[in-house]
């Protein structure tokens, strides 16, 4: 059975404002090294998949940015949505595209904004989750990661039994839990029954489209229409689909869900705190600086400054300072998730020029 990889690159990254904007979302920025998150993800997929088996799923607004970053990608490998309607629509649209090109192939979905610390273990997990999806009668499987600490910003997978991440045997999931509070996350890590959900899913294309017919019939009908029409009619077909993530729309409704346990260093680069943690490594008190910064009597900060501008701080500890040409963000590192509330407030006040 042919295998494909679909990189999901349609998100906006509101928690990484003010660097991440609608016209230049987070996957378009070099947050961790000289390459952007999308470039890193694409290069990682090309280690194991041929060019004609790696796709980037994105929205029309982001196509110029994707093509600028991935100049080597053929246009045939772009799966384009007119507008973003969350991951259910994006993954269903990808399943249609793969079915049209390769019949009942299998495919894995990868978020474009994740950090991976061990490519070998990562690719082993992808091979195993594709094996599991191809074997399972439902045609669906996902990777669950051994939690490294009680993270409250991630989703968790609760399994039917304690997990041995070094075993190759899949387990069954009971439920998903999104972003628990700290005490709950501590209990999850201690229990041995819970895994992080890195949104690394594998599907058989034909079986997934059957699941859409059963669990998301409106999506199923509108996706079928969208494959036949163009222009405004195609945009209308996507607008008719409610915003629904694949977890809620499909995964949580399955009577049995196969989980492949894995252990490798991974992080969702979804907040400025995550950027600091990745770049600081084991030294949480280290300052992480992009640009020119002079700090006195401070520690544990993330400072990002535009070229040609000096940022100076005194007595600042465990804070986020992100300076761009038209906006400045300052917040405690522990409250980095709250940046999305700033974005919501900007939208409420009509300050869309800063989004």
Summary, kept brief:
The protein has 355 residues and is α/β, with parallel strands linked by helices. It is 32% helix and 24% strand.
Q: Class by helix and strand content? A: alpha/beta
Q: How many discrete structural domains?
A: 2
- Order of strands, widest sheet: 3-2-1-4-10-6-11-8-7-9
Please write the string of helix (H) and strand (E) elements: EHEHEHEEHEEEHEEHHHHEEHEEEEEEH
What is the CATH class name of the largest domain? Alpha Beta
Anisotropy-based shape? globular
- Portion of residues in beta strands equals 15-25%
In DSSP terms (H or I, runs of 4 or more residues), the helix count works out at 11
Ranges where pLDDT stays below 50 over 5 or more residues in a row are none
CATH superfamily of the largest domain: Spore Coat Polysaccharide Biosynthesis Protein SpsA, Chain A
CATH topology of the largest domain: Spore Coat Polysaccharide Biosynthesis Protein SpsA, Chain A
Mean pLDDT comes to 93
> How many strand segments?
18
Task: Label the CATH architecture of the largest domain.
Answer: Alpha-Beta Complex
Helix share, percent: 25-40%
Taking all Cα atoms into account, the compactness measure Rg is: 21 Å
Main beta sheet, described? 10 strands, mixed
Distance between the termini: 43 Å
């Amino acid at each position: 059975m042919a295998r494909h990889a679909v990189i999901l690159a349609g998100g906006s990254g509101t928690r990484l404002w003010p660097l991440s904007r609608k016209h230049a979302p987070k996957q378009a920025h070099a947050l961790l090294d000289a390459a952007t998150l999308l470039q890193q993800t694409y290069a990682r997929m090309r280690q194991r998949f041929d060019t004609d088996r790696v796709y980037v799923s994105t929205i029309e607004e982001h196509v110029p940015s994707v093509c600028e970053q991935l100049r080597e990608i053929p246009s045939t490998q772009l799966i384009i949505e007119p507008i973003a309607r969350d991951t259910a629509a994006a993954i269903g649209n990808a399943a249609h595209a793969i079915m049209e090109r390769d019949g009942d192939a299998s495919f894995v979905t990868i978020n474009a904004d994740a950090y991976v610390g061990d490519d070998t273990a990562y690719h082993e997990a992808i091979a195993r989750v594709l094996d599991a999806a191809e074997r399972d009668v439902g045609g669906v499987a996902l990777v669950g990661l051994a939690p490294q600490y009680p993270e409250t910003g991630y989703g968790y997978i609760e399994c039917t039994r304690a997990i041995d991440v070094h075993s190759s045997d899949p387990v069954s999931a009971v439920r998903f839990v999104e972003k628990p509070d700290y005490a709950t996350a501590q209990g999850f890590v201690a229990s041995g029954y819970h895994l992080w959900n890195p949104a690394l899913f594998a599907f058989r294309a034909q079986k997934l489209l059957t699941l859409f017919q059963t669990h998301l019939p409106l999506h199923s009908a509108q996706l079928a229409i969208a494959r036949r029409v163009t222009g405004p009619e195609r945009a209308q077909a996507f607008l008719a689909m409610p915003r629904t993530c694949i977890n809620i729309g499909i995964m949580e409704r399955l009577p049995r869900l196969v989980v492949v346990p894995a252990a490798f260093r991974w992080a969702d680069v979804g907040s400025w705190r995550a950027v600091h943690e990745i770049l600081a490594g084991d030294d949480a008190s280290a300052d992480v600086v992009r640009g020119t910064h002079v700090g006195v009597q401070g520690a544990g900060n993330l400072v990002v400054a535009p070229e040609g501008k000096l940022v100076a701080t005194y007595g600042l500890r465990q804070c986020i300072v992100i300076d761009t040409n038209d906006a400045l963000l300052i917040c405690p590192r522990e409250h980095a998730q709250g940046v999305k509330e700033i974005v919501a407030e900007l939208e409420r006040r009509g300050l869309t020029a800063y989004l």
